[in-house]
Amino acid sequence: MRDPFPEGDLRHVLLPPTFGHHQTPEIVFTVLSVEIWGTGIVVNIHMSPKAEVKPSPPIISVEDHLGTVYSMQTSTSLGSRNVQIFTPSTPTAARSLTIRSPQPGTEALVVALAVPRSPGSLEQTQPENIRHEN
């Protein structure tokens, strides 16, 4: 079996402060965490079916405030857990990620997350932090 997880460095693990609890006509689901890797994004979901049938993974979308287009590459489920992998990774300048669930006529908000600056990013170096010796 091919490992579905992105390659590269793990940059951040985002934990929603209130979890992304969401309900559709078919399923109740909760976004447990979002991992930002060097080559993609992993959304870890807990699923609760509304009926006594095996739940189908929820359909979600990922967006940031920069307008980056994220595409789902794969979805893997094991019991009540579902992992969805999106590419590309977040740009260095991205400061927020939003998970949405498409509903008829709208894209309902599931959870919004703050994205910290990446270690070593140029944005972190501010001119006032640089010492000049005379």
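The record above closes out task 2.4. Task 2.5 opens with a second protein, given below.
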Amino acid sequence: MMDPITYAMKVQQAAFIGACCAAGVAAANFSRMLKGEQSLMFLPAHRRASEQHQPAAYIPRGASWADHYGKRSHDVDVEHMR
């Protein structure tokens, strides 16, 4: 039979391990709840949202390196079709 000191230490150790496990489960549940609340408050953008919207109209300003004046960007390029 165990002496009272060893028995008390074993009981305290088991209580401490149980409390740590319960705290870990509570923290995981709280984190999951916060992620759910965040997804309700701040709706994420659809994964193809950038593909569904057309780019803004570009107004050519004249000759410059970044200017696309004169390009026919909406024509079908047969060489680059899949």
